[in-house]
Amino acid sequence: MSEQIFFEDSDLFNKAEARLFSVFFPLFHQPHKPNAFINVMLWVIFIIQLVALSLFRIDNSTQAQTALSRIVNFIDLSSLCLIIGKNSIFLVVGFIILLVLLFVLLMICSFIFRSLLTTQPWIITLVRILHDILQRILYIPIASVCITMIDCYNIVQINEAGEEIRTRYWRAASNNICMSSIYQIVGVILAIITFIVLIVYCGTLDLLIYNFNPKNGGLFSCPDGLFNFIQHIFILSLVFIL
């Protein structure tokens, strides 16, 4: 596909969008008949994570996870974060590094795509797999880990004068008052950065890549890019609510 084609429809896409598309598009191959097994497997994993997320429960009397939730929510890493406590900040750091590295890999592979295609095509395949893992498998765990950084709860105590005293504690480290630990403060900042990077990453690829070449041939084919982005925002909101 020549570069001239990218600029034909100026009403739909401006030059910057077309340029970005021309750089990144080769990495996101969208066949009319994709491998059904891989897509079904990714959907199954995604659905299992959603079901696990819906089973997240906190016992209001103890402010601790229920027994079922403690087991099931290892799938979306919620239980792991609550077990390791303030050290869950290192999971957030790891996810940020993963996002940045993947974006850098995408940039490098895009600019030397032809060279890699003829000499090391497995690298392109690896990048595509990592991208699918990020958007289809790690999306919910990343959101869950980040939310752990800001999840606090209230403890109501009554003093000798009969007055109610409300104290907020960090759920990941119940011995720390909310936003009093340097781990939580830094974790919240990193979580916000992670959310921004994740949304920008998904939005850039969904709105500026997939919309150029949508494939709507079946249930497990690549949907329209706008639909993809709305789905990502909806899932992120769902994780916050649950």
Automatic annotation (TrEMBL):
<feature type="transmembrane region" description="Helical">
    <location>
        <begin position="225"/>
        <end position="241"/>
    </location>
</feature>
<keyword id="KW-1133">Transmembrane helix</keyword>
<protein>
    <submittedName>
        <fullName>Uncharacterized protein</fullName>
    </submittedName>
</protein>
<feature type="transmembrane region" description="Helical">
    <location>
        <begin position="177"/>
        <end position="201"/>
    </location>
</feature>
<keyword id="KW-0472">Membrane</keyword>
<feature type="transmembrane region" description="Helical">
    <location>
        <begin position="36"/>
        <end position="56"/>
    </location>
</feature>
<keyword id="KW-0812">Transmembrane</keyword>
<feature type="transmembrane region" description="Helical">
    <location>
        <begin position="133"/>
        <end position="156"/>
    </location>
</feature>
<feature type="transmembrane region" description="Helical">
    <location>
        <begin position="89"/>
        <end position="113"/>
    </location>
</feature>
